[in-house]
Amino acid sequence: MYAAGMTLLEENYENFKNTFEKVVQETIHPDLLTPEISYDAEIELSEINPKLMRLLKQFEPFGPENMTPLFLAKGLTDSGYAKTLGSDNEHLKAFVKQGNSESFGAIGFGLGIKLDLVTNKNKFDAIFSLEENEWKDTVTLQLQLRDINTSNG
């Protein structure tokens, strides 16, 4: 359903690629160049608990016809230990809270370039999914960050 295919001679590939890129550049609407993430609900971190995770698991399996629920939380702060991970510092690891809420581990794959948004107790908003993180026989709830931005609140 989400796939398309065609047959192309190898010697025509470069010409096809260049023509395709040119047509897209000439016809794409500028609004389509800004990535957009939709979320399912705004949530307070105080609402995240094992019961919520059990409820979310009842909606599995997730995939193209049943996407993983995404949440928005506003006014988050990091505990002060945010850091980048990966050989090129491409990932972000943080421990976040909202007001006086419990702290949650958060991982953002490909978000290492946004480390400055979460340092120095800066408030930020995040879109994330919830996952269980198992380490040393302990299971904790973790936010899998999809994107973060400076908080307006």
Which secondary structure elements does this structure contain, and how are they paired or packed?
Elements: H1 13-27, E1 41-42, H2 50-57, E2 71-78, E3 83-85, E4 91-97, E5 104-108, H3 115-118, E6 124-135, E7 138-150
Parallel strand pairs: 1-2, 5-7
Antiparallel strand pairs: 2-4, 2-6, 3-4, 4-5, 6-7
Describe this structure in words.
The radius of gyration is 20 Å and the shape is globular. The N and C termini lie far apart (41 Å). The chain has helices at 13-27, 50-57, 115-118, and strands at residues 41-42, 71-78, 83-85, 91-97, 104-108, 124-135, 138-150. The protein is an alpha+beta fold and 153 residues long. A hairpin with a 2-residue loop joins β6 and β7. The longest helix is centred in the first third of the chain and has 15 residues, at 13-27.
Q: Any low-confidence stretches, pLDDT <50, length ≥5?
A: none
| Relative strand content | 25-35%
Give the CA-CA distance, first to last residue: 41 Å
Q: Would you tell me the structural class of the helices and strands? A: alpha+beta
User: What is the number of beta strands?
Assistant: 7
Report the biggest beta sheet as strand number plus sense, adding barrel if it closes: 5 strands, mixed, barrel
Q: What is the helix content?
A: 10-25%
Q: Could you give the order of strands across the largest sheet? A: 2-4-5-7-6
Rg, Å, rounded: 20 Å
**What is the number of helical segments per DSSP (H or I, 4+ residues)?**
3
- Element order: H for helix, E for strand: HEHEEEEHEE
The average pLDDT value, as a whole number, equals 91
